[in-house]
Amino acid sequence: MGDQAKFSVGGKDVDCAVMKGSVGPDVIDIRKLYGQTGMFTFDPGFTSTASCESALTFIDGEEGVLLHRGYPIGQLAEQSSFMEVCYLLLNGELPSKDELEQFDYTISRHTMVHEQLATFYRGFRRDAHPMAIMCGVVGALSAFYHDSTDIADPLQRRIASHRLIAKMPTIAAMAYKYSIGQPFLYPDNSLSYTGNFLRMTFGVPAEEYEVLPAVEKAMDRIFILHADHEQNASTSTVRLAGSSGANPFACIAAGIACLWGPAHGGANEAALEMLREIGTPDRIPHYIERAKDKDDPFRLMGFGHRVYKNYDPRATVMQSTVREVFDAMKVTDPLFETALRLEEIALNDPYFIEKKLFPNVDFYSGIILSAIGFPTTMFTVLFALARTVGWVAQWNEMISDPGQKIGRPRQLYTGPVQRDYVPVDQR
Ligand code: CMC
């Protein structure tokens, strides 16, 4: 028998199995706790709760380690491609050359969206936030691709997963084109996944669009850095939505809605807006003081993380990618200097040291995306595009788990106890 956690509560002895993962902290299996004691555990924000078993992604927050299927994020970002990482997350192993070519081909055959979706876009106001459009359009995919919504059929699940990964760049680019009043561009499957996205976003039908290899590489790397991140808020949302048997398009729309918040994916937009507000390095101390002030809601956006109590390994790659993009595009941005200085000041400040607050993936990404030409409103859309593979891989893992149950947390009720209804004329 493995380790047991033994404790007594309310006069009852409790014996819970301790489960071991391949690496990382053990977990106490409390599934029988309510039956044995009549008590629930209380953990809002899930700071001490593992909600599932997963073999996809591992994070060691103390050491700043992020592994996908065992491979360190730094190696994947430097040496692989987003398509390869998609294959890895979905299938568990790196593809052979043939497998990668086949996968790339399959994804490229799903890049177009139903023609009628263009009409759907026209129902949105021109000034709609592209994340609002993404929530609506991705949710609507189940109405267009009904033949891949039977979650009990593994083939339909695979087709839905491929469709979501393949169509996301087209949907994201269309959201952008709609907002600036330019015509939609059809995908060009002779280009790479990322090159195709750049062309659909920045190209126009009247001219040839040249994909800059260095920008394509940087963008691809940004997609890799966002591909999956364990049981974060949006992934947990996708799993919870999917646990009821909802179709994959609806589940991913739920994930997009959750990602939008500024504490999650919306932080990349908020981080660049914050850097723009700070402007020059001389204004940094004022904002550092504000971030430390308990009575001021201001936080340093792009700083801090629930899991990382060390430098986010994605931020390291992101910071080095800034210079590559600047060189490739022959541009520079004084906000990069402000960001570097802000990081330096924060990392030497006792408040940030004590609370272990480090730059996260969103701190430098905005500077790169802005240099490439994306408006801030598109930043979270790009995060959603890249995270789609993680969401579908996690969703597939959940559906394939024979022990899967509908997600149904309990609560600590603090409302009124039972009382009798009083007719309105007697109140
Ligand atoms: N600036 C100033 N103080 C902070 C910050 C920050 N960015 N982040 C955390 N703190 C403080 C916080 O006030 C709290 O202080 P105290 O213990 O005195 O109450 C302490 O540090 C712990 O913070 P928390 O909010 O309890 O931690 P959390 O794990 O619930 O929140 C977080 C994590 C990422 C939501 C938070 O750090 C934050 O709001 N950061 C800014 C938003 C951001 O950059 N989000 C992107 C996360 S990475 C991309 C993604 O996965 O979506």
Q: What proportion strand?
A: 5-15%
Helix content: 40-55%
The SS-based structural class is: mainly alpha
Strand order of the largest sheet: 1-2-3
Outline the biggest β-sheet.
3 strands, antiparallel
Written as H for each helix and E for each strand, in order along the chain, the element string is EEEHEEEHHHHHHHHHHHHHHHHH
How many helix segments? 18
Question: How would you describe the overall organization of this protein?
Answer:
- The protein has 18 helices and 6 strands.
- The protein has helices spanning 33-37, 73-79, 82-91, 97-108, 117-121, 130-144, 154-180, 193-202, 213-225, 233-243, 248-259, 267-278, 284-292, 313-329, 334-347, 350-354, 362-372, 379-400; strands at 4-9, 12-19, 27-28, 57-60, 65-68, 71-72.
- Helix 7 (154-180) packs antiparallel against helix 18 (379-400) and helix 14 (313-329) runs parallel beside helix 17.
- It is globular, with a radius of gyration of 23 Å.
- 38% of the residues are buried.
- Residues 229, 232, 263-265, 267, 291, 299-306, 355, 357, 360-362 line the site of carboxymethyl coenzyme *A.
Primary descriptors:
427 residues, mainly alpha, three-stranded antiparallel β-sheet, 18 helices, 6 strands, 51% helix, binds carboxymethyl coenzyme *A
